[in-house]
Design goal:
40 residues; mainly alpha; 0% strand; translation initiation factor activity; TIF_eIF_4E
Length: 40
């Protein structure tokens, strides 16, 4: 059960990061960001 909640939390954080990348939420530093990765 704990593993499922960990996966759900990771999915939520990954989605939040992708939405920030798409929405250009990084202001000045956004010019330097060209991707994102998660290593589990």
């Amino acid at each position: 059960r704990k593993n499922r909640s960990s996966v759900t939390a990771l999915d939520d954080k990954w989605l939040e990061l992708l939405l920030c990348l798409i929405g250009e939420a990084f202001d000045v530093d956004g010019e330097d960001i060209c991707g994102a990765a998660v290593d589990v």
